[in-house]
Amino acid sequence: MTDFIQLIIAGLATGAIYALAAVGFTLLWQTSQTINFAQGEFVMLPAFFCLAGIKFFGLPFPIAALVAILLSMLVLGVIFKFAVVDPLMKQGTLPLVISTIGLAILLREGVKETYSAEAQRFPSFFPNVNLGTAGFNVSADQVGVLIVATGTILLLAWFLASTKTGRQMQATAQNPTVARILGVNVERMVLYTFLINGALAAMASLLISPIYLAKFSSGETLGLVAFVAAIVGGFNQVRGAIVGGFLVGIIDNLVAAYVSSTYRQAVPLALLVLIILLRPQGLLGRAEERAV
Amino acid sequence: MSRTLKIALGVLLIAIFIVGPADLTGFGIPWTGLKRYGTYILTLWLVTAVAAMGVNLIVGYAGQETLAQAAFLGIGAFTTTLLQKAGLPFGLCFIASGLVCFLVGIILGFPALRVQKHYLAFVTLAFSVFVWLVIRNEEWLTGGVNGIQGIKRPVLFGISLRPALYYYWLVLTLTAVLTGMMWWLLRSPWGRAFTALRENSVRAESLGIDVRGYTLMAFAIGSGYGGFAGAMYAPLVEFIDPSPFALGASLQYLLMVVAGGAGSFVGPFVGAAVSVLLPEWLRFAEGFYLIIFALLVMLLMAFCPTGIVGLFERLTTKARRPHADDKGPTLGTGTGSTTVAGSKS
């Protein structure tokens, strides 16, 4: 039983990080119909911004982390929007999808060639102590990750639901034409979404890298997980992505411990297929109205 | 270009493909042919083009998205290898590989096509990772990470096709047959129906076309081509392991087809050429070649989403008619304002 609870806590901690990535993924999809195949690489990259800050500029870790978040908002938010997404919006979904696949390769190989092909150790914000009693292990790391990630998500949920800007963003996501008529600055709202996605990806990156190490290729798995979490929860709902993230995190940990570690990756995917077959709009999503 | 000129060019091209890599000095022609490695790359290009043709049918003609072609290639390659080890002749292995992938395509596509467009992409993505896991984990069947070695090249009418050039000729023949079949398929009422689906699926449905049935067929046949490509791939490389059949490779197939020109008959051949030959040309760039490749693809998508074939057509039409409008009017070109119904599905 203690094993089970420990696994659930570990699952919640990684799940909260997956949720961060999945929420960003969903936000981009909602406001700009961008299926971002580079989302995993977006989560991989900020850790390297931080490492580069420490290694080449001698920044202390907290400052480097802050710089990494700001740099991610600039590169993965602003530059990604203006240089990649905007020129491709008018070309339709497929060219954009292809372009993000290209971007994923670009970021992955770019990090490999310019920084390192080896997995990098990454400092943690939290002390390496056991908060549990004898026989029951809960590390401060897990609790810290869970609190920070959940806090970020709650803050975002509050922002989207209770501030004027947040509500305008939701209006933009649901119906840009009407939002524009009602006086919402749609272009600015879309830009905000990209900024938020950049920040969320950076948070996820800084939290997950101490656990799984920072490596150029880790985006492949992370992207897949964010993808699965977003679809399982409901592609068009932010809270769906949150639930999806936690669910995938817990299932991932339980499967690895009790079922099979070699087929660990397959279980979230089986869940994905099951959801698509039985409830294509996702657990919490609403059915998307057909275009015609 | 006049019709006779076109035919003459076609014949010349085919002749070049047949004798190009061969050593012609014995016939008094000063051409020593390609070396072993050159012939290998040319064969690999043909194999890749066959798989890409399948993707083109699914993406370019039926308007769906597949992220599993490398997985089908893997299924085809392992089917051929295992059947060959069991003593079956290559011809049967080849046909079986295509059939197995066709059937798997039907089983996979049938439920996925019940729902909207992107879901086929999601399901194939999951499938592709799953196939890779099976190849990696089931050592008793696939050799796991160590793969299977010593795959024999076929023997035809008592002649061993072990030499690179002979095997190239076999692959060239099979590719020609598969290309001919694809050509026939696209010219048949079936092919017309595929295009109708891509252009306007609602209208196609109203004209009595069974949208789901045809899309499923396109997906299954396209996947079958992946199987055929896999059957030719295994004896070519003589050693198979899980890595060429991973998700990244499947993404690469989608990438090359769109970069070449989705929905154009020669697109897959151009795309495969870019994907197979570019790394050879960019040897000097070493690790940076993938970065250059990714940048090229992104630029191509931004400025010419119809791919290299489209770019070529645009340039040649422009030369003839200076004010040629190569694109129809595009609705809602603003950012974010594009979501007037329609663009969502």
Explain what this protein looks like in three dimensions:
The complex is a heterodimer of chains A (292) and B (345). Chain A has 292 residues and is mainly α. Chain A has a single domain, classed as Orthogonal Bundle (ABC transporter involved in vitamin B12 uptake, BtuC). In chain A, 74% of the residues lie in helices and 0% in strands. Chain A has helices at residues 2-32, 39-57, 61-89, 93-114, 140-162, 164-174, 176-181, 186-212, 219-233, 238-258, 266-278. The longest helix of chain A has 31 residues, at 2-32. By secondary structure, chain B is mostly helical. Chain B has a single domain (36-320), classed as ABC transporter involved in vitamin B12 uptake, BtuC. Helix content of chain B is 68%, strand content 1%. Chain B has helices spanning 3-19, 36-61, 69-85, 90-112, 117-137, 139-142, 164-187, 189-199, 201-206, 211-237, 247-260, 267-281, 289-303, 307-320; strands at 155-156, 159-160. A two-stranded antiparallel sheet of chain B has the order 1-2. Chain B is globular and about 60 Å long. Classes of the chains: A mainly alpha (292), B mainly alpha (345). Chains A and B meet through helix 3, helix 4, helix 7, helix 8 and helix 9 of A and helix 5, helix 11 and helix 13 of B.
